[in-house]
Specification:
Distance between the termini: 28 Å
CATH architecture: Sandwich
Structural class: alpha+beta
Largest sheet: 6 strands, antiparallel
Number of strands: 9
Length: 170
Amino acid sequence: MEKQAFWFDYGHYQTVNYDVLASTPEFDQLIRHRRVMEPLHQLMGGDLCFSEIGLRHMDRYTDIPKHWGWHRDGQHLMEHPLRTRNIQLILYLAEVDETTHCFSISPESVDQPVLENKDAQLQRGGIYNLYGPAGTAILCSYSVLHSATVRTTEKKRKTVQVYYGHRDHP
């Protein structure tokens, strides 16, 4: 049976493809890039594993002004010193600034309790929009409250998103 790529439609302005089996030398160079692996080992410790890779295309958007879909991709790993279960690498393939869609987080400290209520976390941590030129790489705990900030824009945002985990955890 031939393997097929699945593109998910997140509205008329966004398409996403996630695949745990992307296996080309080009993707391997990104997944195992030394400038990514060194900080991952420092942040996570222990043996790491690759989880999945995703390609995201956010098209021009002319509907509702700025909005978010705040979420956590999974729970914190409370026995880890930084509560980090998995880390997400977001690589901007196009310039991202105040006039485009961007990745946004609501930071939290390991010294504070995890707030499951999204509004309470946004009140405490605020919203930080992450900008940069094409080639910008962001490492983020997938448990931190985050969102794509969707803006009215004529510009496209393209990203590669790679997820890493602890080899001894699901």
